Amino acid sequence: MTTSQKDQSFNINMQEWMQSAMNLWKKMADTQQSDSPFKTSESSFTGSKKTDQFFMSSMNMIQLAFAGLFEPDNIESTFQKSDAISSASIDIMQKITDSIMEMQTQWIERCVRIGKETKAYSFDDMDKEIFTTWKNIYEKEFQHLFQIPTIGLFRYYQERVNNAMDKFNVFNEAMTEFMYMLYVPFEKTTQVFQKELENKMAKGEFSNNVKEHYNQWLRILEGHFMSLLKSKEYTDVLNHTIRSYVQYKKAKDDVMIDLLQQIPVPTNKEMDELYKDIYELKQTIKSLKKTVQSLTSNY
Amino acid sequence: MSKPIIDVDLILKSVAENTERTKERVQKASEVMMDTLDVDLAKTPYENVYKEDRVRVKYYRPKTVQYKYPLLVIYALINRETMLDLQPGRSVVQTFLDSGIEVYMIDWGYPTRKDQFITLDDHVNGYINNIVDFIRNKHDLPKINLMGICMGGAFCVMYSALYPEKINALVTTVTPTNFDTDTGLLHIWMKQLDMVQVAECYGNMPADLMNFGFLLLNPARLMLDKYVSFFENMDKKAFVENFVRMEKWIFDSPDIPFETFRQFVTDCYQQNLLIKSELMLNGQKVMLKNITMPLINFFGKFDHLVPPEAANQLTKHVGSSDTEDVCLATGHIGIYVSSKFQKAFAPRISSWLKERDS
Q: Rounded to 10 degrees, what is the CA torsion of B321, B324, B325, B329?
């Protein structure tokens, strides 16, 4: 058999296979239509007919493409280019693998930087520095993940969810620092109280009365709290906590509004507009009422 | 043998005794807690005589009226006016009634989100002015007496400066008028913290957040020692009743309307406009020199919310020649509820008003 005969035979086989495939799918579609409990008459609903038409035209397009592809002239070209196709595929795969490797490297570098931020085995000033360190790590390495530009139809919804998650993390960090600050007076009180007990023991003035010890401990604690509450550091941390909470609440409310819009419930934003209108109307009515009263009393 | 530094045996004996006492106390406390407790507040009978939006006016009638001018009491927007009628024997209202004063008291109600736009002006030129006119008409009098508590006192000062012709005598109690002081933590925080933002994101200033802020003013006493003290006395019925009554009052807090809160923080706490006679309400300047009626000004020496420096400047800035400052050695709430000051506070107001009742 010559090359031309081989090509012709391949082309005929291909066409026969396409035809049989079309027949098979058409039969299956017909069977499904006749068996379907949701079968509708063509006059009332033309959905099934449209599906058939779409299916047939798709198959015809495939058949046409293959017919063109396996024309004697094209077959030769196709087989000649097969090397190029495989080479391109390998090239694409190589690029994807490289990208994944590069991303992994970036992540490893990120983790290494986190290690650099926290000095190994260094616990000096850990209680003071840990919050600053974590804040820096979060801002430099993680916060960007929540700020990656979003795209597509639902980009605004996604952006609001990302924002809420970011603000929640920032608030959590601030709250932890604030709670730690409230714990510090207890730690300091224990140290001072211990020293005072030692002094009393040395002087032989140690009391057996537990209540007396409690009162002394409370006085020291109150003193430490007063110093803390008046300090600038405390005000700064409290302010940071309040601000981050406000931002988190606003971001959370934005997500909640998106959710509420899916159900028949008015949102706070909508109700606030209504309340504002009611307030202004009431003001107008009260003012008019006073004017009417003064006018009637003049008569 | 020398005396040991720590008498371990004595300590162990003391711990054993304490454990036994605690066991007995807990057993008795469970009986007290299960028993019927009288923890109701504000039991003095009254009549609601006026209503506007969420605001109501309570009218307390004495057995015999012995004063020409009735007294309108204006409470703060923080917490509730029930503090003035906490319980029999510790009731400012009852003391006034016993003297023969007709008492009207504003109940600001519980603001909701719809009240967020209500301003300082709406409170002073709106609600208070309408209520004063209502009482004047009811008694056919040109003037009435006015008494304010804390923020309510600041409202009274503003009102008396704007409508001096309607007020016979003014009583201010623990009233902040000079906000340019760093003595109280509240004054520092209100200047430095973004509380307005908090209120804005909630619609109104949430009462629970405010209460948490007040607890943070002295965490050792208010969040710890107070409950240790309760644990030590929970087998005493009268103590438990008083304690629960105070807890009910402290945590019965309405939210503050956002716009009023914002104005009060920025105009008063941050810019101190009231004492400088620069506060504007409805386009009118609140001039303290217009306060020409008699004025008595009470404040607490140990008040951590409104320290003496925040309250004792008022009498120097008003136009009245009949003024008096009274500093009592107590705190912000002690003036009204402490049994020690039941005779030094309300009876003194009654007698001061009587002298100016002609």
A: 170
